[in-house]
Amino acid sequence: MRLAIVLALAVVPVRASAAPDAPAVPTELADYVFKKDESFAWKLVDTKKADTGTVYELDLVSQTWQKIVWDHKVQVFVPKGAKPQATMVLWNQGGRPSGTSAVLGLQIAERVGAPVAFLYGVPKQPLFGGKTEDALIAETFVQYLATKDGSWPLLFPMVKSVVAAMDALQAFAKTEWGFEVKSFVVTGASKRGWTSWLTAASGDKRVKAIAPIVIDTLNMPVQMRNQVEAFGKPSEMIKDYTNAKLVPIPDTPEATKLWRMVDPFVYRDKLTLPKMIINGANDPYWPLDALNSYWDDLKGDKWLLYVPNAGHDLREADANGTKQLLPMRAVNTLGAFARCMVFDKPMPGPRWVCDEKAGVCKLEVTSATKPVALRVWTAEADTRDFRKARWSEDKAAKFPAEVRAPEKGFRAFFAETEYDLDGLKFTLSTQIRILEAKK
Known about the structure:
Blueprint: H1 28-33, E1 41-50, E2 53-65, E3 68-79, E4 87-92, H2 99-112, E5 116-119, H3 133-147, H4 155-177, E6 183-189, H5 191-201, E7 207-213, H6 220-231, H7 239-243, H8 253-262, E8 275-280, E9 302-307, H9 328-343, E10 350-357, E11 360-367, E12 373-381, E13 392-394, E14 401-404, E15 410-421, E16 424-429, E17 433-436
Parallel strand pairs: 4-5, 4-6, 6-7, 7-8, 8-9
Antiparallel strand pairs: 1-2, 2-3, 3-5, 10-11, 11-14, 12-13, 12-15, 15-16, 15-17
Helix pairs in contact: 2-9, 4-5
């Protein structure tokens, strides 16, 4: 049973309603992604068997973009005893295979109980004089503004690399296992989370579900204003875009179109598939309540996880600042969600309502599936900037829980439900609410 998460928080999110004269949804993404590319190729290059399972390694050429060949590594992690399924998890990331990615891949695959694929080299980098990551994306945005060539935005070849990986994995499964993989759960973090959103937005019907991680910036024009309101200026983490004069978004038709082309919010009518959104509660990229500017407008089944005391890497830090080796809260929730999608199991989830009166929020959380634990997390800050705030668990909280505005500054909070899925414990969250002291 997929629960629609009902919101009645005392928050009025900024909406971008589809007015009759609203601009048409851009077609450049699909035009580029589905244009035939003769350079596509793949081959199986290695198979490693161990007590924990089997790891296959593929070489993939996804495309030739701006006369540059995009080559990738793909790894398929098969836990011991697991069998191929009609749905496969596909994680996309940058770089090349490493010991850390192997541990992460096997951890996720063990929780799913089925093969999981990792696609590397998204995007191809460095390019254009050594540029990588956001500096590279910003450069391609500048090139689009100069040329009006709709193939320039780097997110488009990034999406095409995921689509090519799906093609390769389907062919691999038929060749190696004699089995047909029909659909995928696409996931990835940061700009690879952005890629996950846009892969679904491309319209590829093989994308059964998505789990975008730490890309809390849908409804981008609103989010850019949110950053200034919360931080006093755009986040330092997006300086590559501000330095390129892409943020604040220039008030020109070309810049408006560019950001519409790459904003998943613009494609929301297509994004009705199941979505698992995972964010860090101390992520320096985004204002704490950024999700409230787009959550209500997302259609279809959706779930949410906030990781307390964790930044962009989702590794939780203790009171001394020591971080986990792996982001286990996120891994467990991602594994549970993917398992439900792969095996067509019902994904539990909470419903919540926050009734605020006179600076007091009465938070009620219900769930059709009884959680094994229900808790409240709170944090305080002098301003709406919670990036360095310490989150504390209220172990004595009883529901409906009452959270009061502080004597000064701001108090943020969310509720967390914990579930047990076939022995796998995982958590889900409500939206974050921020209460301000009376002035």
